[in-house]
Amino acid sequence: MGTCTQQRLLQSCMDCVKALRRGTGLRGERWCRFIHFRKLKRDEEGRWLCDGFADPFSVSSEDMQAYLFTGADNLDKETASYILSYILPNYCELAAEEESVLKRKGKKSAIAWKRTFVGIRELCDICATTIFNVHWFCEFCGFVVCIDCHRLRRNREHGLFHKCHLRPRVENSKEEVLKVAQTIPKTVLFDLAARVHEVCSKQNIKTVRTCRCEKEQQQQTESSGGGSRAGKKGKRQSKNSHVEIKTENDHSTTGDALVNGDIQRRSSDASSVTGGQDDASVDQIVAEPPAYQAFPELPVDVPHLWLCDGRLLLLQEPQHPNNLKAFHFCWRMGKPVVVAMVHTTLSHDLWTPHSFGEEFGKQHCDMVNCRSGYIIEDLPVGQFWDGFEDISARMTDDNGEPMLLKLKDWPHTDDFSELMPTRFENFMNNVPLPEYTRRDGRLNLAARLPDRIVKPDLGPKMYNAYGSAAYPREGTTNLHLDMSDAVNVMVYVGIPHANEHSQDAHGCCEEEVAAAAAAIEECDDLTKDRLSDPSLRVGALWHIFAAEDAPKIRQLLLQVGHERGIECEADNDPIHDQCFYLDKELRSRLFEEYGVRGWAIAQCLGDAVFIPAGAPHQVRNLHSCIKIAEDFVSPEHLAHCVMLTHEFRRLSDTHTNHEDKLQIKNIIYHSVKDAVGVLLSRTPVA
Questions:
Q1: Which residues does 504 contact at the CB level (< 8 Å), separation at least 6?
Q2: This prediction's pTM
């Protein structure tokens, strides 16, 4: 099973051909698409020939271990049950879609097995999404098509696949041309799907949404004469039911044993929310959140305030032991939450503009002028920090006006911890709700990804920008939404000043301070009461909207774009393109015409704003701000992550959100695998 370059008489894969044309060779044999995949044999003359591909049922124990439960020290029984109550329906859909492809294709030809390598991402050559399990490939050049791209092109003729460089006249969009492979060995994926239902039944775990398996079972019961009464009796789920989570880790062990006997795979048809129903509505994918009243009674005693007319929870002590249960009470309903005073737990000297200027001032990066949207390339970072609080030191535009700069993608490094290890440690040790927000948090599903997988970049990331209070129609960050949950912490607020020699700068300072005060007047009375405390320093004004309101917001923006002569292309989106900031006038239209009201959040120094996945939001810095954000994947909003993955897929190939950077299918599989393993007393799940 050597590389193409080692066996020159064989057809070369795409990557080997590119390497040979460049004359550079491969950077290691794992870059060859056929290494440890294509089987070889010699003919009578001793020449190498292709002898098929690796078999998913002839796999070493070492390769099997990558997909079996091997332990989860930070996951207890209660948390495992809670995770399954939210994500089980998504796993059932995922497994059903994968199995339907194998059943349809398996009758015609053998299924190949593609080994995964540590630290290497196998990508779809069409959408650049990480390959999860079942996929199509060209046996001649190694071209790879993910299950979603293949479905879209087969059902909708959504473009062409690929012209094989060895067979340029053959159209690879025909299903019979490409072969099917899987990366998860044997029937591990489907065995787990059956076993997780056994575990949930035995542990009496109720899901917040009815999974497809339950629906099929209910339909079979009714069609066999059991009637609606039998169907209702067999239904385990209530949309408002949920499993409580503990605030302390449970160190007890469980004595559940595996059920004896063979486990049969569930049969299912080809349609699924994770792929087959590409136009599924939000209601089909995301459970309806429980009813939410203003000023609800929290289930625990915790210092808190209610803002936004009683609709927004603010937790006043960042490390209070009851924060988790109070947070969960609102978070499971898809509501944002604020945790205050986080800056009191951080090392202040690490997060000042002076410290960043001294340490990193000579680095270069691109900056964005928030007033014009233009990018200014390759400027010294120190130039930004010099004008952070001193308006007279800021760069000016062609009209002599101080620019409203924002650092673009700084720090450059993919991992914040590599460039700023001390700050990384200080932030991660003090970020609120660590069960969700830390990289190893027990309720952060991204933590379930094993080390062999190239993990998604979830931060932390820095957001550094000047204040734009004097320009109410222009935001620092335009309206958009994210595939994952996020927490954004305000670690420094810079109030502008000017030196005594710059009268114009003095005028700008006074204008910004007055405009910031005017912006706060748009907030509700509860927020204004909070901000009457002179010790609080306001930095930014957020507007967050419920995820289920995104279609209405999109409809308004399309209408506004049409009114302004801006037409949205078919493969673009007015929210994902981040081309609108909803000023007061547009927010009023949104409420009057569509009944949509969001949360206006004044973020002060030390405030950590939690934004649910899929929730449209925008930010306007009232003063210069340094913010640190960390993404995470909570079980409560995983269904939104799945929906957005397919929504982003419809964007153009060049769109920044086109790729599934979250690897949501891998997250679902390993989360279920670990949860089942914990509930079965760490007995391997296959």
A1: none
A2: 0.85
